[in-house]
Amino acid sequence: MNVDPVIAARFAGTLGAFDIDVTINAPMQGVTALFGPSGCGKTTILRCIAGLQRLPGTLSVGGEVWQDEALGLFRPPHERPVGYVFQEASLFAHLSVRANLLFGHARAMKAGAREVIRLDDVVELLGIGHLLDRAPGNLSGGERQRVAVGRALLSQPRLLLMDEPLSALDRITKDEILPYFEALHENLSIPVIYVSHDITEIERLADRLVLLERGRVLANGLLSDLEADPALPLVHAPEAAVILEGTVATIDEAYGLTTVSVAGGAVVVPGRRGPVGAARRLRIGASDVSFIREQPTATTILNCLPVEILSVTPQDGAAIQMNIVARLSNDKSGARIVARVTRKSQEVLGLAPGVRVFAQIKSVALIAGATGRPDRS
Amino acid sequence: MFELSELWPPIRLTLTLAAIATVTLLIVGTPIAWWLARSKAKWKEAVATVVALPLVLPPTVIGFYLLIFLGPNGPGGAIAGLWGGRTLAFTFEALILGSVLYSMPFVVQPIRNAFEAFGERPLEAAATLRATPWNTFWTVAVPLARPGFMTGAVLGFAHTVGEFGVVLMIGGNIPGQTKVLSIAIYDYVETLRWAQAHILAGGMLIFAFVVILSMLVLEKRIGKLKQ
Fold first, then answer.
1. Residue B78: CB partners within 8 Å, gap ≥ 6?
2. Which regions of chain A carry the CATH code 3.40.50.300?
3. Would the ipTM clear 0.90, i.e. be above it?
4. Which of A349-358, A362-371, B2-11, B120-129 holds the top average pLDDT?
C-alpha cells in the first residue's frame, strides 16, 4: 500500500471511442496541470479522481486509498475530500452566493473536517464580499467562477480539482480572474490538479505538467523541464516558450529595471518588480531568442547570456526552421531555453550540440504576480 | 326551494378526496419521477407508458379493472374478508386508490421534466461538496424542481376534483362516502334539479379557471426569478 504523501493514480479502461491507460504521480503541493488536446481524456481522469466516474484502477491521495479495484474499494465522491471546479460554475440556482459558498463547508464540518479555510479568507482572497447576498443568476461569468472556486475551497478539500475553469470565459474575463488563481497558488497549501488545453494558462499557474495524448501519458514532470524537452511536442508548438523560476536580485532605480536571477544566469526585465528576494516567474518565447557567436559589444538587447547548445531538431518536415534547446552557462544545473531559428542561420553559425555561443533574448515576459514554487525534491 | 347546506357534503368530500390523493400522489409519484428521470434502464419508457396510460384510456376502463380488482372475487375481496367484509369497492378508500392511479401522469410528468431539466451537473457538484445522495436529493434536486412539484400538485388536485368515470364505476353514489361533486351534478341533472346543478357546475367552472390562471401566473413569476 502506498503511504507516501503523494497523489498516485492509475486508471485503465475503455471509455467510448478510445482506451485510457494512465499512471499519474503528483506531489501533495503546488499545481499539477493535465495538458493535452481535446478528447485526450484529461477531464475523464479528473472525474475519476473525484469519483464522479469510475474506471478500473487505483488511487491514493496523501496516504489514503480512495480506490483499489483489486480490493473492490471505491469511495463515493461525497466521501472524498476534494474540491471540484467545473468548466461552467455550476452554482446552485436556488441558493444565494453565501449559501452556495457554505454548502460544502457545512457538510464537511458535519463530517468532522478541520476548518482550515474560513468564509472570510475565501471572500477576501477571491474578492467576492459584495456578492454574498446576490443570486447566482445575477453574476457575471467571472464572478460566478470565482464563487465556484470559493465554494470548492470551503469544503475543506485536501485536493483541489479544476476542470478548464477558464475556458468558458472570454479573454478579458480570463485576465481578470487569473490573478485570483495566482493568489490561491501563493496563499494556500492545497495541491491543485488543473486541466487545461491552453498552455498560456498553464505557464502562469502550473509547477508540474502531465502531458496527455489519446488516453496515454506522454510525459510527467516539471513544467520547465517538459517545455524544453525536444522529444516532446511542446518545443515544436507554434507558441513554444519556456518558464524560468527566479528571484529578484537587484533593482536599478535609475533606469527602472529589475534583475532576476535564474539558474545559471540573470535576466533583466523592464520595470521595478521588487522587492529583492521575491520569487518571480519569467516566460521566454522561442521566437524571441537569437544566437550570436561572440559577445556583442554594442546592442540594444539587454539580455545576452552565454549558453551551451543541447539539441537541434527540425521544426517541420522541410526543415526550414530548427528548434534549438540551450542551457544557460556551462553549469549542469543551468536553466534551459528554447529558440527557433532558420536552418540557414543554424548552419552558418554551426550550431550543434556542445557548441557554446551567446543567446540574445529580445523580450522576457514577467508573468504578472505569479510566484511559482516548483517542487524540486 | 332547497337548502344550500345540502350542497356541502359532496363539496367537502371532494376536497378531502383531492387533498388526500394529492399528498399520496406526491409521495408515490416523486420516486417514480426521479427514477424515470435518472435511470438508464432500457425498459424505463415502458414504465413511463404504464404511468401515462390514464391519459389515453377511458376512465371507465380503469374503473372496470379496479372494480374487478377490488370486488368480492378479486384480491380486494380477500383483503376485505379479513375483517368480515365482502368488497373494497364502493368505499372512500377505493376512491383514493382510483384517483391516485387516474391522476398519476399529471403529477409524475411535470416532476420528471423538472428533474430532467437541471441535468446531472448540480448533483455532481453537490457530491463533490460532501452531500450524500439522500441529502442532495432534498437540498438540491427537490428545490430545483420546485416548479415541477407545484405544477404536479395543482394538476393532480384539480384532476381529482374533476374525475367522474372512475368514481362512477368503483364508488357508486353513496352520500357522504363516495358521492363527490361530479357525481352530485350528474345526479341533480338526472333528477331535474337544475338549480343545484347550476351552482355546482358554475363553481367548478370558476375553480378550473382560477387553478389554471394561477398556475400560469406562478410559472411566469418563477421563470422571472430564475434569471
1. none
2. 6-226
3. no
4. B120-129
Decide if A111 touches B, using CB distance below 8 A.
Answer: yes
CA distance B116 to A219: 40
Q: Of B124, B143, B146, which is closest to A52 when you measure between CB atoms?
A: B124
Q: Where residue B167 sits, what CATH number does that domain have?
A: 1.10.3720.10
Verify whether the Cβ–Cβ distance A84 to B135 is below 8 Å. no
Q: How confident is the model at residue B223 (pLDDT cuts 50, 70, 90)?
A: low
In this complex, the residue of B124, B125, B143 whose CB is nearest that of residue A94 is B143
Class of CATH domain A241-366: mainly beta
CA-based nearest residue to A108, from B130, B135, B16:
B130
| Total of domains in chain B | 1
Contact A78 B140 (CB under 8 A): no
Closest CA to A134 of A95, A91, A169: A95
**What pLDDT is recorded for position A171?**
85
Question: Domain A6-226's class?
Answer: alpha beta
The pTM assigned to this predicted structure is 0.86
C-alpha A21/C-alpha A326 separation (Å) is 33
- Among A47, A92, A162, pick the best mutation site for testing chain B contact (most B Cβ within 10 A): A92
Query: What digits encode the pLDDT tens for the residues B154-205?
Result: 999 999 998 888 888 888 788 888 888 888 899 899 999 999 899 999 999 9
Contacts of A86 in chain B (CB under 8 A): 121, 124-125
